[in-house]
Amino acid sequence: MPYVIAEPCIDVMDRSCVDECPVDCIYEGSRKLYISPVECIDCGACEPVCPVEAISQDRAVDPDFEAHVDDNARFFEMTLPGREDPLGAPGGALGVGAVGADTELVAEHEAQVPPAATAVP
Amino acid sequence: MSIDYSEKIPNNVDLAGDRKLQRALESWQPNFLNWWTTMGPAVPTQDVYLRTAVDVGREGWAHFGHVAMEEYRWGVFLAERNPDRKIAFGEQKGKPVWQQVPGEYRADLQRLIVIQGDTEPASVEQQRRLGATAPSLYDLRNLFQVNVEEGRHLWAMVYLLHAHFGRNGREEAEALLHRNSGDLDSPRILGAFNEETPDWLSFFMFTYFTDRDGKYQLGTLKESAFDPLSRTCQFMLKEESHHMFVGTTGVDRVVTRAAELMREHETEEISPHGGISLDVIQRYINFHYSVSLDLFGSEQSTNAANYFTAGLKGRWQEERRRDDHVLVEDSTHIDVVRDGVLATDEVPALLALNHDLRREYIADCENGLKRWNRVLEQAGISRRLALPSVGFNRDVGVFSDHHITPRGDVVGADVWEAKRDSWLPTDADRTHVRSLMKPVYEPGRIASWIAPPTKGINDKPFDYEYVHFA
Which of B56, B58, B233 to mutate to test the interface with A (most CBs of A within 10 A)? Predict the structure, then answer.
């Protein structure tokens, strides 16, 4: 599996990575973004633009977030809540739009306050 | 700072504020354009649907439109400066990064920039004639996008040479236009950049394996304590992603078409049916992967250690690594040949930095093979493609004195010669591939040996007129 998005993206979803990806393989869940392991070409364009350093190569994921390696794949392989079929490899996120659902791991994650909001006194 | 397009040389480095530098680069510009005319794409075009950076930020780095290639706005674009950036590794770790070249590192930094800069025009030269045999307008456009961006990467390195290395730098900038790929008298510096790119399968392999080496080399220079080099490489990496996209999906499509023809004709021998067989694809992989591995240099290198200690060149993802970033106490294992078999040796980590980078690169390449094998699996074909052993067909490093099979067995010269044609592209392979290289210039049509892309560029359809000919 190539690049993955891990826990720091939850409730942040900055989407800078989406603008960078040359193959449009970053899909939008309800609370987090997910990289299609089948469509990612390992170019690495997404990694440096993430403001919360949520993106890394699968072999370099922070040990605390290792569950997200398989979880990125699960997003495409399982039938997500409210959908009839797994996403599979649709060939581009733009045509799919916001999926509006997450994997169990992400859906059950405690709500995080987005960084921008913490700066407000 | 946003990009100033009103200047002769578009830039976001306030060139207008340094008249001497501006004049020097403006005097280099006609030489570059002359090189582009004589050594750049040979197919005459009216305009091409290209991506041009109008800003290095999120909104502007990918601006699309039809552009006459000779009027492409090659310029100098550096990523935004981080005023708080500190050196992340080596003996000066934690100190502020340098905005000017320290005298003691001048020669080494210049050398690193010249070597990187030399690769950029080299690939344009290697790919000069490919446009004449493009399998589709979509592919032709992608080739030209790669070419103009390699040209811009040359500009990026030439800016650094002019701005920071004085007269020596200007002379080196001139020399970058005078060396030519494959020239017997004045070749490009690195071996892989003197190899031919005679056909589109070679082009896709090159943009997969050799441009991916570029990703890793630029990734180490991005870590440099010399901040202008770091910021230059950050923006180059953004553009380099497109080149890897071209390679990855290009090979995808060749494998996809091979699988279609194998199923249709129930044979692996698809050459008579206008396809490229998996045997040939495998031999091309073997060649381009092994040649690209040589670009990482010797497994043990005191130069690389010195560059790291000085802060000139870091490791891949330096700041995300969980060690002391100095490495004087650390050790690691490198590949060697011992008693006729592949083995490993423990060596100081500082000496094994080339090996460390190569290991990261190999992990990427393994993902590519998984991807192409997934295409075969989904087509119900049991045959699989594979990366050859790291020791196969090597001219640089510990394996260069040995003959090693793709499976990793050390063999004698006799076995190597006897089997060589089953491992590396043969004259017959190249002749067959070349015979398939017929131009397909009608919008929406594609050559027989490659599958169409799953989508077009920038949400345009595959049958969009990406290129208008002169």
Answer: B58
